[in-house]
Amino acid sequence: MAKDFELMENSNPSANPTFHEISSLSRRTLLKGGLGATVTSFFAPIGLSAIGGCASMGGTSGGGAKLGFASVPMNNLDAVTVPSGYRAQVLYRWGDAVGVAGKMPSYKPDASNTAAEQELQAGMHHDGIHYFPLDGDRRGLLAMNHEYTDDGLLHVGGMQNWSAAKVAKSQAAHGVSIIEIAQKGDGQWEVVRPSQYARRITSNTPMFLSGPAAGHSMMKTKDDMTGRIALGTVNNCAHGVTPWGTYLTCEENFNGYFNGPETPDLRQARWGIRKGGAGYRWHEFDERFDLTKVPNEYNRFGWVVEIDPMDPDSMPVKRTALGRAAHEGACVVQTKDKRAVVYMGEDARFEYIYKFVSRDAVKPGGAKANKDLLDHGTLYVAKFNADGKGEWIELTHGKNGLTAANGFADHAEIVISTRQASDRVGATKMDRPEWITNDKDGWIYCTLTNNSNRGVGNNPGVDAANPRANNTMGHIIRWRDSGDFDGRTFEWNHFVMAGIPNLARAEAKGNAKGDDFGSPDGLWADGRGVLWIQTDISTSVLGKDDYASIPNNAMLAADITTGEIRRFLVGPRGCEITGCIATPDMKSMFVNIQHPGETASERNDPNNPTAISSWPDNARPRSATLVITKIDGGIIGT
Ligand code: FEO
Ligand code: CA
Ligand code: CA
Ligand code: CA
């Protein structure tokens, strides 16, 4: 039952059939519609068959006025479940053509597409996403990350007979997609093919290095003696968008791609780099990813990368002034005098939260007028004090002990070794900072997804900001800077502590007003005062492959004013939900389903790819972008 698809765009919310009825109808409806592979997938809410249309929900469901939908119960179906009155359409799956004119290879369901074809198709493992309007709310560009690959699913035979061709395909399935999309008269969205904007950025795309580390000796390699031009981006997780219309993609766990020496040096060790530590095995056929052969290559990763989605010929730029980290999230706001402030988290246990304040004000004139704006400014790291206040500690050479005598020869070394600089100044070690977003009142929210090592063994113990030992379920913290976004101090509190009672290994109890959730990750505050929370309770926390007995990851909406939280969407088995943005009118929402079918073990079994999930095609699972709309055409969430 769980592998059925539903097509309900014509359904009458006041007369929802039961789930059983839908299941038996759906396949027939789908085929009859002849809509092919890009068809809407819509799943009725389970157990909500008696609930009427959404328009009546706000006043009768007992919650804040901003949340007007019926909560979707937890489930473990291999399906996307959204509330009654909504539909979810699959728009852009791994392997779908990006839309380059004359170069639109079809997806091959047996994973036999070549690397060259993959370079023209959606990558794997969709993550951060943003909508850039071309024609308001009806036509625009989506820029999105492809965080990593499951090489068990990516290739015929998975990682058996590992080869240069498989490495090339894995590299081509990483990076970023830029696609053009448009809404048709019937309300459905489609990828516009061909499009002059269509573009894939991969782990081999040339990109500039700019800012204080560009040209530094630690950034030079035998293939780039300038230290100013890198190849590619990896592990792109979360994102940001600038006031001048560019997309920021964040290089997260880049260290996992590099093979290290037998005896790592201190810098390598701070990244956990070691011999045999490169699980993707690219180094076996591409020496760039072997530190014993190209020792500086890894310094060229771990950056926030700026991309101009409107100019397909533009080279992405790695902005080193923002510091090097396992970057996740780059939330950009502006001070009253129009300087850009970027809040960033580093998703690793006991790592840090940063902010960068630009030296110069944002100029009118878009990307071209602001092409150097993120190269000059001041980087800070957060210290959360126990009294609900905090401070931003400046990471500038010569200040706060960041001197040559203490191992930082110049400012470039501070931005290359940002972790060590933060260690040195005594910043607060956080429970894996993931996404960051801002509300209209100046509060900045950050998901602290979990940290099962907190207070365990020799690891740091609890503190006021990270108050739970063995924090398997995570929490959301928020702060507001004094005065303006460039303030050097802030106030902070916990927005919510997450927890799901009775879930395996979920010792932490939450305090959500409303629906339970665990391991918050994706986060977006919309303009209405609703905080969209996406979860990634990973298989490493759950620790088992028994997907029939554990709830799937979900997306919830929180009313920031009342704190009420309602579950809005439940994903298919083995996925996480990550990446959320809407059209400016809030009538179409884009949500990414990442790694459906992911196993507790590292990769899928290539001989049994549908063991856990066959979403969305009833075949090999594929990460995909959903579009969610209200059947009555209304505003999402109301
Ligand atoms: Fe890629 Fe921290 O999630
Ligand atoms: Ca994440
Ligand atoms: Ca994840
Ligand atoms: Ca995560």
Overview in brief:
10% of the residues lie in helices and 29% in strands. The protein is mostly beta strands and 638 residues long.
What topology does this entry show?
Blueprint: H1 19-33, H2 57-60, E1 86-93, H3 115-118, E2 126-135, E3 139-146, H4 151-154, H5 164-172, E4 175-183, E5 189-191, E6 199-201, E7 206-210, E8 229-231, E9 236-241, E10 247-251, H6 266-270, E11 304-307, E12 317-319, E13 327-334, E14 339-346, E15 349-351, E16 353-361, H7 366-369, E17 377-384, E18 389-394, H8 411-416, H9 418-425, E19 430-431, E20 433-438, E21 444-448, E22 475-481, E23 489-497, E24 513-514, E25 520-525, E26 530-535, H10 539-542, E27 554-559, E28 564-570, E29 576-582, E30 588-594, E31 624-630
Parallel strand pairs: 7-12, 24-28
Antiparallel strand pairs: 1-31, 2-3, 3-4, 4-5, 4-6, 7-8, 9-10, 10-11, 11-12, 13-14, 14-16, 15-19, 16-17, 17-18, 18-23, 20-21, 21-22, 22-23, 25-26, 26-27, 27-28, 29-30, 30-31
This protein binds MU-OXO-diiron (FEO) and calcium ion (3 copies).
One calcium ion binds at residues 434, 449, 521, 536.
